[in-house]
Automatic annotation (TrEMBL):
Alphabetic keyword roster: Glycoprotein, Transferase
Keyword Transferase applies: yes
Lineage of producing organism: Bacteria, Pseudomonadati, Pseudomonadota, Gammaproteobacteria, Chromatiales
Top-rank taxon, per record: Bacteria
Signal sequence region: none
Domain Sulfotransferase: 14-199
A Pfam family annotated for this UniProt entry: Sulfotransfer_1
InterPro entries named among the record's database cross-references: NST/OST (IPR037359), P-loop_NTPase (IPR027417), Sulfotransferase_dom (IPR000863)
Protein known as: Sulfotransferase
Organism of provenance: Marichromatium bheemlicum
Length: 310
């Protein structure tokens, strides 16, 4: 690993949830924040290391803006799914927080892709059928990041986490699975508490609640109206930047959402995606010693030697 000397920072964060998108990162962040020894900003998605404008403002700005309310001492972290979207992010994190612990929560990449697609449709950003969108994303091997349409690319976990392994030792990266968080959240959290150095005996009171589920907008114009109002309050200094981000995120992901059950994904498209992601799942097994609970990928189907993320 060719590491340049890190830039020392005051009050370094202890952990980052780096994604993946549509994989229960919001729920995981909320559960961790319930722990009395852990502080996670309520807005989530700070995107400090992935957003060039925020990154230029400096780590001190980010910390004072979003972590001023954190008790001292405590374990501090944040969750931004963009950290698994933009390739420059891991290097920025390494140069600023070389000792930080990284949590990647991964969902079956087929289900993640479909959930991402449904979200884009519900936001009016997608008009193609899913099969056409998948074919286009698989064929597009450019380096351009498209947050609204990279349904397949954002599930290529070997490529993404392979980039992180160029900047961090594997001991600083913990991989957990969305499906296991849903099935036994207390057990997953106990392991993560140990990983970040918190008391492992605590059980959050909100484990039955799911956050930021995909659904329809209840009032199509509410998000835009709320953002405009909150920006005026922010300019008048009635609310802080941290509170502004928290309220925007809450309006967008919870207040104005009516959960909608997903239609069944066609077996043909599912088979195409299973073939595409097979090497990624095999890589995860080899590199992190994990067994993803994804029935689309039986061990004998993913025993190839593709080193997409190496």
């Amino acid at each position: 690993m060719n590491a340049s000397p890190p830039t020392p920072v005051t009050h370094p964060l202890d952990f980052l949830i780096i994604g993946a998108q549509k994989s229960a990162t919001t729920s995981l962040a909320r559960y961790l924040d319930e722990h009395p020894e852990i502080f996670v900003p309520g807005g989530k998605e700070l995107e400090f290391f992935s957003d060039p404008q925020r990154y230029r403002r400096g780590y001190g700005w980010m910390y004072q803006t979003f972590f001023a309310a954190a008790a001292a001492p405590c374990i501090k972290g944040e969750a931004s799914t963009h950290y698994m979207m933009y390739p420059q992010t891991s290097r920025r994190i390494r140069d600023t927080l070389p000792q930080v612990r990284l949590i990647a929560i991964l969902r079956n990449p087929i289900d993640r892709a479909y959930s991402h697609y449904r979200m884009s449709c519900m936001r009016g950003r997608e008009s193609r059928d899913f099969a056409s969108a998948v074919a286009a994303d698989i064929a597009d091997r450019s380096d351009t990041v498209d947050e609204n349409h990279n349904y397949v690319r954002f599930g290529e976990y070997a490529r993404i986490l392979g980039g992180y392994l160029e900047d961090f030792p594997s001991e600083q990266i913990r991989v957990v699975f969305t499906e296991e968080l849903e099935r036994d959240p207390a057990a997953v959290l106990q392991g993560l508490y140990a990983f970040v150095g918190a008391d492992t005996g605590f059980v959050p009171p909100n484990l039955e609640q799911r956050y930021n589920v995909t659904g329809d907008k209840i009032l199509p114009g509410l998000d835009r109206w709320a953002r405009s109002l909150l920006r005026r309050l922010r300019r008048l200094r009635v609310i802080s930047q941290a509170r502004f981000s928290q309220l925007i995120f809450w309006t967008h992901t919870e207040l104005n959402i009516r959960p909608v059950a997903a239609d069944a994904l066609s077996p043909e498209v599912r088979a195409v995606l299973a073939e595409h992601f097979a090497a990624d799942v095999a890589w995860l097994r080899r590199r992190f010693g994990v067994n993803p609970p994804w029935p689309d990928f039986a061990p004998d189907e993913v025993a190839g030697t593709d080193e997409r993320g190496a």
